[in-house]
Amino acid sequence: AQTVTQSQPEMSVQEAETVTLSCTYDTSESDYYLFWYKQPPSRQMILVIRQEAYKQQNATENRFSVNFQKAAKSFSLKISDSQLGDAAMYFCARNSGNTPLVFGKGTRLSVIA
Amino acid sequence: EAQVTQNPRYLITVTGKKLTVTCSQNMNHEYMSWYRQDPGLGLRQIYYSMNVEVTDKGDVPEGYKVSRKEKRNFPLILESPSPNQTSLYFCASSWTGVSYEQYFGPGTRLTVT
Q: I need a labelling partner for A36 at 20 to 30 A (CA). Which of A4, A22, A55, B110 fits?
């Protein structure tokens, strides 16, 4: 089975500091997209950032950026200047043509004031 | 407002009593999907639909049924619920294609006693 692995069940970060959440994936497809979703206590799933496999440049959205290492099949999320509102579950996901969206098991991020 | 709605948001039921969780989207998306979320397991896909009258099994389809008679609606049916189906359920929709993000409903918390 093609999988997405998040090896850190829980992480914590001090407010205003930077944290990196890890994700590795497995795929035999050449065309795919990678996503990070945030799930706050409200349970709503919110897209944080996406990355196309063909693009070398790492995606950035304000304080959120990714480190995409295609050969290593790694897709980590970096959150800079962490805020209390960043506390949530974060899910990494992979979408490819022949297989529907596959999620990792999630990383629970706590932000310490 | 573009959205995915689910009803009910919370449901407590007993083993064997048939139930339906409705899902509706107003974005004219072709693709719709159901997930269940369990602690430590992330989101696992139950069923998905590429378009009207086209449905397919996800990773955990046992005990569930779906139908897609209209583009906007994708109900999830539990013919004979069991306690192991106690979970948080999400409906999602998107345009067809690997690059498109999925829009999630607010979730349905189901408890089967």
A: B110
* Cβ <8 Å between A45 and B90: yes
In chain B, what residues touch A33 (CB-CB under 8 Å)? Answer: 98-99
Q: Kindly list the distances between the CA atom of residue B97 and the CA atoms of A6, A57, B47, B50, in Å, as whole numbers in the listed order.
A: 24, 21, 17, 10
Of B42, B48, B88, the CB nearest to A103: B42
pLDDT bracket for residue B38 (50, 70, 90): very high
Task: Report angle CA B106, B66, B22 to the nearest 5 degrees.
Answer: 35
Q: Do B101 and A35 touch (CB under 8 A)?
A: yes
**CB-CB neighbors (< 8 A) of B104 in chain A:** 44-45
pLDDT tens for residues A45-63?
999 999 998 888 999 999 9
pLDDT in tens, B51-84: 999 999 999 999 999 999 999 999 999 999 999 9
Adjacent-strand bridge partners of B38: B42
Task: Give CA–CA dist B102/B100, Å, rounded.
Answer: 6
Angstroms from B106 CA to nearest CA on chain A: 5
Given a cut of 80, whether residue A99 has pLDDT beyond it is: no
Contact B107, B89 (CB under 8 A): yes
Tokens of A97: 């043509």
Mean pLDDT of A9-20: 97
Nearest CA in chain B to A36: B101
